[in-house]
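@channel anyone free to eyeball this complex?
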Amino acid sequence: MQATHAPEHGHGPPGGLMRWVTTTNHKDIGTLYLWFAGVMFFVAGSMAMLIRAELFQPGLQLVQPEVFNQLTTLHGLIMIFGVIMPAFTGFANWQVPLMIGAPDMAFPRMNNWSFWLLPVAAAFLVGSTLLPGGAVAGGWTMYPPLFIQGGISYDLTIFAVHIMGASSIMGAINIITTILNMRAPGMGMMKLPLFVWTWLITAFLLIAVMPVLAGAVTMLLTDRNFGTHFFDAAGGGDPVLFQHVFWFFGHPEVYILILPAFGIISTILPTFARKPLFGYASMVYATASIAILSFLVWAHHMFTVGLPAGAQLFFMYATMLIAVPTGVKVFNWVATLWRGSMTFETPMLFAVAFVCLFTIGGFSGLVLAMAPVDIQLHDTYYVVAHFHYVLVSGALFSIYAGVYYWLPKWTGHMYDERLGRWHFWLSAISFNVLFFPQHFLGLAGMPRRIPDYALQFADFNRISSIGGFVFGASQILLLIVIVKCIRGGARAEARAWEGAQGLEWTVPSPAPYHTFLEPDVAERHLSPPLPQAGGPPSGDEGRGEGYAPELR
Amino acid sequence: MRPELARANRRLLGRLLLLSLAMFGLGFALIPLYDVICDLTGLNRGEVQALARNTQVDASRTVTVELVASVPDTVPLRLIAPNGPVRAHPGELVQIEYEVENLAGRPVVGQAVPSYGPAAAAEYFKKIECFCFREQRFAPGERRRLPVLFVLDRTIPRDLTVVTLSYTLFERPAPG
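replying in thread with the prediction:
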């Protein structure tokens, strides 16, 4: 723990590959998380391309149904546990210490460990495609009895989930401890940047529910291998019980995947509207109430299992209640933009698209919250459209926005704005071509997770697949932008965006290897106008003096 | 890192680890807890669930189902039909039980074959479970009750008021 901070180790990183294996630096680990998420994004994305290619026309063309099931299952598992969650953890590693004026994360060695568990888990998941019987094909929700009956790759998947869970829990503990104990003097809780607040709440959600998922898959494991009958009806168990335990994890997980996105958007909109965030305190309370409510709505994923009417009513109304704090957030974002001096650089474009498209996803969620409607739409493409609107145009677009927003701080170069805009417009348009028709497919009754479909669904599926191919190809642009930005480009100022507020913009770009080694450095920047207080940046900010290397 | 900060961090680490352990335990505790919640709230405990109630019963008429059983002389089994006919509404789920006894001193494999009278009634018998679906193996001297679960389709013609369900139990030669 001492090594990272000891000044005698110098300020620069050691060279070579071992730098990345042994690093305990929060910026290095954040970079590792983000690259890992990027690699897994292209792995799981190419699976999605195969799925859309198979669904391009009715009948079986490219893959057998067993392979199709493996593709949908792995696509879901990897996108959730291997892309969105690691990407957000990467942002947290990079930004949280910078934003609160801490020198590093609280437990740098544990930080290294939580990252390096992930490639192992990913290797198990992806490598299981080579096992006899192929990869896991029971759906990312891992429902028994199917999941109890599969081959060796199912055990390997359970092990991978255990590892990823351990990684997430350690990451969450690290983030909570950093935020609660290592804030610079003067950085009170209600002065925290909203991204830090959303991550604090997300980390508590992770600690609360990842162990429950670990318990649920442990029960699957013992049902499979050690003769227990938690979920096996033949031995007195109940398969529906798994759904209750799984969604007790699964619904808070949904907010784990979106709350950090709220934080990123709440950081970017004020920057490019050149106005402080509207309703900071209400944003904090809304985030907290979403997190609390998320524990009370799990059974809305299970309206078709034969819940008693009273339970259906409870979960229906509780679910609709979540629209209230979420609505508070959306209205706050709109009010932040209202009469702002807006400019539309790529991060802002993605952020505005987030607000519009995430809201569409929220509305289709409200439709699905109604039990009688859900019973009709359950397991149709309407559900697929809904969760891709919240996870792709929600979580993923916020990740894009954050990457473009902080790339200058990470690399010291401005990214190629022209390519960035191409990436945005191609993604935003093709995303809608890809997923909007799936609402109609779902309303017409096309079931999800099936490789073939009835002829009347052919037209919308063809449109959707074309949108899918364009969307997939556009993401290569992002890779080009990032690589170009790392290799060169216009030099970025310390305050890369003129409207940007917060401590991370007081250190030079690229951020030095060590920052805020002494707490009062951050304090000096904090004491005049605070990030959320909304005043204009005082004159001496932005020149980047006061960062770590001047010490000693 | 200042020692007091390192100490505070370790203390928080311990608490958060304890919290995640407790949540792991809660995952398992959920299994009895769901039962307790259902007991307290009465969910899943009272009447037949609203969703599960069969709304497709045509209570305006009743069909009498007569049950018949026969076994060829050469087969050492006895098949006993339930006592008396069953009266059922079209659309109603009906469960009946036949009884079989193996009279031989050796294991016998039997296969029941259903027939319907009048033959036109056959298409309205929707069997959900029947011992005739597969062959049945009986140990020497074994006596066993075998269930039949069926629904008379709602579209059964109104003039069919009495129908007969008959089973004949044959012996299957032992394999090999």
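from a first look: Chain B has two domains: 1-44, 63-172.
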